[in-house]
C-alpha cells in the first residue's frame, strides 16, 4: 500500500514501540463496524481470532454482518445495537460494553456518512447540523465513552477518517470541514493519552471499494477494498511504529 505517515508533532518517519504481538482473544470494539468500511475491518479482526463487539444503530445491518462473517470460523463476533447520537444513549452503550468486556484492548471508530450536494454558499443549515451530528458529534461521544474502557498502557484507539480531511471536493465543503476537525481531534487525543500509554491511530482513507459500491458498479480497480483496509488496521495494531497519522492513498 502506498503510505505517507506523520507523527503527532508533524514529523515524518518511524519509531520503535511496544507491540501487540497478536490479536488472538483481544477484546475489540468496532463502532460502526456494520458499515461498508467497518465490515472489512471486522472480518480482518476475526481472522486474527479477536473477540469483536460491533455496535450499530441498525439491527438489520448487524444481521447482515453476521451472515457475512459466519464462514470466517475464528474469533468471536458480538453484535450490539447501540447509539452514539446523544450523550445519554452513548452512556447506555458504555455501560453495556463494560458489562461484556469490563476492559477493552482496541477501539476502532468507523463512524459517519458522506455528503456532497451544494456549494458552501448554499448549504442548508439543517443539512449542516445533520452532517455535524453524524460525523463530528458522534466521534466526540465515541471518544468520551469508549476511551475510558481501554486498558492503560496497552490500549489502542483507531479512528477512521476520510480523504476530505486532506483534499476538498467541490460541493462537499461541510465534509472537508468535519473531516479536518476529526483529524485535529485524533491528534489532540493522542497527546492527551500519552501519559497513560494509550496509543491513537488516525487512518485517512481514499475512496474504498465496498461491497455495495462493487455491486452497483461504482468502484474502481485502483481503490482499496474494505478488507484490504481491515488488513492494514491489523498491521497498525500489531506493528512496532508510534506514528499517529496515516494517510492511506489510492493504489498506483
Class by SSE composition? alpha/beta
Order of helices and strands: EEHEHEHEHEHEEHEHE
Query: Strands of the largest sheet, in order across it?
Result: 1-10-7-6-5-2-3-4
Q: Termini separation (Å)?
A: 9 Å
CATH topology: Rossmann fold
How many helices? The count is: 7
Radius of gyration: 17 Å
List the uncertain runs: 1-17
What keyword list fits this structure?
single chain, alpha/beta, eight-stranded mixed beta sheet, two-stranded parallel sheet, 252 residues, 7 helices, 19% strand
What this model shows, in words?
By secondary structure, the chain is α/β, with parallel strands linked by helices. It has one domain (3-7, 19-248): NAD(P)-binding Rossmann-like Domain (Rossmann fold, 3-Layer(aba) Sandwich). Helix content is 39%, strand content 19%. The protein is built from 7 helices and 10 strands. Strands 1-10-7-6-5-2-3-4 form an 8-stranded mixed sheet, with helices on both faces. It has a two-stranded parallel ribbon with strand order 8-9.
Topology:
Blueprint: E1 3-6, E2 27-31, H1 38-47, E3 51-56, H2 59-69, E4 76-81, H3 87-101, E5 106-109, H4 125-146, E6 156-162, H5 173-193, E7 199-205, E8 208-209, H6 211-216, E9 224-225, H7 226-238, E10 245-248
Parallel strand pairs: 2-3, 2-5, 3-4, 5-6, 6-7, 7-10, 8-9
Antiparallel strand pairs: 1-10
Helix pairs in contact: 1-7, 3-4, 4-5
Question: In a few lines, what is going on in this structure?
Answer:
It is built from 7 helices and 10 strands.
Amino acid at each position: 500500500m502506498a503510505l505517507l505517515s506523520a507523527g503527532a508533532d508533524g514529523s515524518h518517519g518511524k519509531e520503535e514501540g511496544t507491540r501487540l504481538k497478536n490479536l488472538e482473544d483481544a477484546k475489540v470494539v468496532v463502532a460502526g463496524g456494520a458499515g461498508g468500511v467497518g465490515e472489512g475491518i471486522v472480518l480482518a479482526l476475526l481472522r486474527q481470532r479477536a473477540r469483536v463487539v460491533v455496535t450499530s444503530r441498525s439491527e438489520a445491518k448487524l444481521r447482515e454482518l453476521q451472515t457475512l462473517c459466519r464462514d470466517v470460523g475464528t474469533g468471536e463476533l458480538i453484535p450490539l445495537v447501540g447509539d452514539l447520537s446523544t450523550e445519554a444513549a452513548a452512556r447506555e452503550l458504555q455501560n453495556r460494553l463494560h458489562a461484556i468486556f469490563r476492559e477493552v484492548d482496541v477501539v476502532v471508530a468507523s463512524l459517519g456518512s458522506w455528503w456532497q450536494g451544494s456549494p458552501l454558499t448554499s448549504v442548508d443549515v439543517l443539512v449542516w447540523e445533520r452532517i455535524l451530528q453524524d460525523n463530528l458529534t458522534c466521534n466526540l461521544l465515541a471518544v468520551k465513552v469508549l476511551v475510558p474502557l481501554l486498558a492503560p498502557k496497552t490500549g489502542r484507539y483507531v479512528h477512521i477518517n476520510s480523504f476530505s480531511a486532506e483534499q476538498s471536493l467541490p460541493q462537499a465543503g461541510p465534509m472537508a470541514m468535519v473531516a479536518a476537525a476529526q483529524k485535529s481531534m485524533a491528534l489532540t487525543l493522542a497527546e492527551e493519552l500519552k501519559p497513560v500509554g494509550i496509543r491513537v491511530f488516525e487512518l485517512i482513507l481514499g475512496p474504498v471499494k465496498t461491497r455495495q459500491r462493487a455491486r452497483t458498479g461504482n468502484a474502481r480497480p485502483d481503490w482499496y477494498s474494505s478488507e484490504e483496509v481491515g488488513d492494514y488496521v491489523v498491521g497498525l495494531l500489531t506493528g512496532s511504529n508510534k506514528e499517529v497519522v496515516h494517510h492511506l492513498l489510492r493504489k498506483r
